[in-house]
Amino acid sequence: MMTAPVKDAAAPASGAEIKIRIRNLYKVFPTKKGPFTALDDINLDIPRGCFFMIVGPSGCGKTTLLRILAGLDEHTSGTLEISAPARNRPGNSMVFQGDSLFPWMNVWDNAAYGLAMRGRPKAEIKEVVGHYLNRTGLAKFHDLYPHQLSGGMRQRVSIARCFANDPDILLMDEPFSALDEQNKVLLQEELLRIWEETRKTVMFITHSVDEAVTLGDRIMIMTAHPGRTKVMVDVPFERPRSVLELRARPQYGELVYNIWGHLKDEVQRARAQDEGR
Amino acid sequence: MTDAAESSAPQSIIRAAKASAQASGGLSREAVERLMNLISPIALIGVWELAAQLGFIDVRFFPPPSKIFQVMWKMIENGLLMKHVGASLQRLFWGILYGGVPALILGVAMGLYRNLRMIVEPVISATYPIPKSAILPLILLIFGLGEASKIVMVASGVFYPILINSMAGVLEIPKTHFDVSRNFGASRFQTFRTVALPGALPLIMTGVKLGVGLGLVLIAIAEMVGAKSGLGYMIWNAWEILSVETMYVGLITIAALGLVFSLALNEIERLIVPWRSAR
Questions:
Q1: I need a labelling partner for B222 at 20 to 30 A (CA). Which of A37, A181, B72, B132 fits?
Q2: pTM for the whole thing?
Q3: CA distance B93 to chain A (A)
């Protein structure tokens, strides 16, 4: 089995400022059967403005890594450095997996949540939330409640909430995994379009190789538990990108095929481990 | 009472849909069903009246409904009924307020903080099953024969269902919602206000409905001892002077209040929990 030289692979592509630096990061959960290593020696340098993708079989600790970055979980050992955000700007905002909108708030209040919690002035909230609801095509649905929206619209609100908060880093935990293919492509297009406005640093988790190649600048493929960096892949496509146009390129197919090669072993290994338990 | 209240929202949607489908054929389904609701009470009153008039039942215990309504009308005219209803409602109001607000705050806090829950829950579980009517003598001893003892009685009944439902309501909120509030920088108080409280609101409303119903039961019991006004007093007093019709007037009034409260609370729920219609 091939193991990538992790340090080299994690080095930044250019001299860009490093936004997130992770060294020897471990996450170990105590379980009844003894300690369970979810993340095993993760090393990463993510430059500012990088759209960073993490792909791996389910249960490889992707979400754990994201939650540690979000400050929702603690890591067991290792160092995690995130360069300080500009004044008045939150460090990160997350688009959660599945339904995370508050059912008791309408679209507008959901999208305005971060700004409202930070006590931003009303005029600013109105302008920023209005902008992102417009960009996500939700403006005329602003007073509907989540249960009145389709799954795709709900994820749009979730994305608008994240962007409206204007964080330094966007964390996305399989935001499109529950959507059908057509909606997924539409939302990927939309996400790229909105992201182009600010080009914030993004850490995006997915189990879809297509999604990783379509959206990312760099892809980290993780091993099945314990979660390790298996290999790093740079995505050569220029920006701005068009989701559908990319798919027509032979290079796209090659890259997807390549990554699948790395991933297949891991998926099979994960399955074997699951069956062995 | 709660069962009907809980299922009323989705039901009304189904009914509305059916009603519009059949709108062309005379009476709507909704109207027909509403009329059907009236059949059994009207039939009961009719049979009762007939049986009393014909001497099948002892009118000393079961006076004919026509006579009960006559007495009721007289009591409305001379203001006596309103005086008693007013007294009971006032005690009910303060009892619900004094019992409900602390229950709500403590219940939500217990839902939010595990340690607090571990400490307080045994006391709640142990005292909850004590029949509130059984502590009336103790309450009379402590709070005397005045208003306070009645209000405390109601408060003790309202307290438990609201506390238990508020706690359960918070525990039922998906963890993701708390992750969101943390990730978006909400303070403790903001989390309480924007996540815990609204998230628990559907169950809190269930608790309020249960509590109000129980409060109505307890106020009638409390007023039977040492009160000079209120529906409970009115019923007890009627027994002492053997005015059976007045007793029935009291019972009917309590039943009517229960119905009005239940309808009003359903309406309030529809207004403050607009997202509940989803379930």
A1: B72
A2: 0.81
A3: 28
